[in-house]
Amino acid sequence: MDMNESGEKGMEGNASSGAAGIPVEWQTQFSAAAFSCAPPPQQQQQVPMMDSAFASAGLWASTSQAMALSDVGAMSAARGGGGFLAPVPGFLPQGLGHFPVDSGFIERAARASCFGGGGVMGATAGFRATDHQPMNNAFSGSSEALLDHQRKDGNEKGEPELGRNGHDGVLSSEAAGGDCSSKGTSDSKKRRRPNEVMGGDQVQSSNLPANSANESVHSKDKGEESSPATTTGPGKSKGKGAKETSESQKEDYIHVRARRGQATNSHSLAERLRREKISERMKLLQDLVPGCSKVTGKAVMLDEIINYVQSLQRQVEFLSMKLATVNPRLDLNIEGLLSKDLLRFPGVPSSSLGFSPEMMHPQLQLSQPGLIQGGAAGMANPDVFRRIMQAQLSAKDGSQMSHALNGGSFSDVAQMAYPSLGSQDLSIRPSQDGFQM
Amino acid sequence: MAAFKQDLFRNLLLGLRARTTEAACPFDAMSLQERKRAIKCSADVAMAAARRGVAGAAIGGRARWPKAILAAAAASSSSHSPGGTCKVRKSACCKRRVARRRVDAKRTIRGYAAAASCDVARRLVRRRTMALRKVIPGGSAAAMDEAALLRETMDYVVHLRAQVDVLRAVSAAVQRSTFLGYIFVLHFVDPMKD
């Protein structure tokens, strides 16, 4: 966790400080850049350069998604390439196996697996004719709008690289999928893992024809369909090296299965896609939950996940009990907390550090009991927060929620959650010296 | 992630302040259990609110658990029995869940000989999926398929971990500041004078 924070500090030093708190702007930036990715032709020469550029970017294992994408968005605007956005969420340094990851990681890994199969699907002509449309219909609804654009790029890029790792695919299928213990967090390994799982299924099918045959069929189906379904912009350039192996392996799977007379139609492919998605997410969860790298199998993994979530919830209870014990009045000494808080927010300039505690004293005495003096960034979030809350909640809930949302900030949520609140002023006002939080 | 933690912390402060100002019973009369529950609920609501504020535009625009937490908080506060409902409901759920898992284990052991191993595995997976649904807020409400449930789990685990970090930092800071405050008082209030 310390390394995470140092990595985050490194990235935050690079990124624009204002970008962190403004996800809406980031979103438009991201979508604009991603749409610019779609039309241009293959950028095969650029991609290795981008990969190496990222290799030199240093540690940033679990930077927040907003941070990374805003940084990349700025850089892509500078380069005008547009495709630069792609490798950012997908790239993971090799040795950082067990860092806590954020939602960006989830997105990355989903795209990672899905993109590889997209090239394979594009490769075989028969598949392209039959399967594009059903996959479009089935998955465009669930995936984001960017995915369709990037999938086409991925299909076109996949073709030239198919012939390369033909024998790799055969070898990995022979490996019987026993390599889960050696997994790292690199994308190539991630993509190889589902292929190994599928290879394992393939081997098992010959041994246990009754049920495992169905399972292997299903898993292979999903392996191919997952790629076009959830491929996005990051998938295009992010997995260039890893993509080749998975595409060729998946293409081999199709050929092998067609040779063996197993079903390759759209239904079983849809089934296989679903299973591939699930197994991909199980792999991600395996990375999230500490100490689960050696666990194989869904049931045990689910058990570990449940135990971990329950232990985290119990930790929250314990810590809240500790807070209640330490703090008999529940008012939380603001000054001490904020000075401790500065350690978490690495962008704080040292001058304001000296300033703010002294400024806190007179203000704490003079201010009304509801006010907290905070950073300017604090104001940005409530506005965005209010907008998002309004968008998401006002339609569903009744008059109380919409009335609450029409005000400002967390105070409205508080009024919803703590109904007898009264007219307390619960805002966080920015202090004048720019105390950054 | 740092932005999420900032928001969580801020929301936690606001929430606790709101709770203490609006509480029917004064702070001193609140038992330890009530205070703990208040802090925990505030932390959960803060986490849910921060999740929507920071990452509402990310893939987590699809996350359901913040809505579930906020809905549960609203429901519990509207019913408004301060000590009772949350704790009672939670302990009942815990007991039921624990009991069911024990029973499931026995059943699978008995039926092992009859069923094929893959059927047993499938049954185990199904039961544990249901158990996971109960643990994740909002999991049992919607008809989520397994993939969506796993995605929710990932999202929830990440943010829950952040919440634990924030709470740990806050409690350490409060502890430290209380200690320093005592030192301060002892220094300036010199019992030897006069």
Describe the structure.
The complex is a heterodimer of chains A (437) and B (194). Chain A has a domain at 265-339: MYOD Basic-Helix-Loop-Helix Domain, subunit B, CATH 4.10.280. Chain A has a two-stranded parallel ribbon with strand order 1-2. Chain A is elongated and about 80 Å long. Chain A is built from 20 helices and two strands. Chain A is mostly helical and 437 residues long. Chain A starts with a helix and ends in a 7-residue tail after the last strand. Helix content of chain A is 68%, strand content 1%. The longest helix of chain B has 43 residues, at 146-188. Chain B starts with a helix and ends in a 6-residue tail after the last helix. Chain B has six helices and no strands. The model of chain B is unreliable at 83-94 (pLDDT under 50). Chain B has a domain at 111-193. Chain B is 77% helix and 0% strand. Chain B is elongated. At the A-B interface, helix 1, helix 2, helix 4, helix 6 and helix 11 of A face helix 1, helix 2, helix 3, helix 5 and helix 6 of B.
Concise overview:
The complex is a heterodimer of chains A (437) and B (194). With 437 residues, chain A is mainly α.
Distance between the termini of chain B: 54 Å
Q: What is the C-level CATH assignment of the domain at 265-339 in chain A?
A: Few Secondary Structures
Major sheet of chain B: none
- The percent of residues in helical segments of chain B reads over 70%
Shape of chain A: elongated
Could you state the order of secondary-structure elements of chain B as H and E?
HHHHHH
> How would you state the average pLDDT of chain A, rounded?
52
* Class derived from helix and strand content of chain B: mainly alpha
Roughly what is the average pLDDT of chain B, rounded to an integer? 74
Low-confidence stretches of chain A: 1-27, 29-97, 115-243, 347-409, 423-437
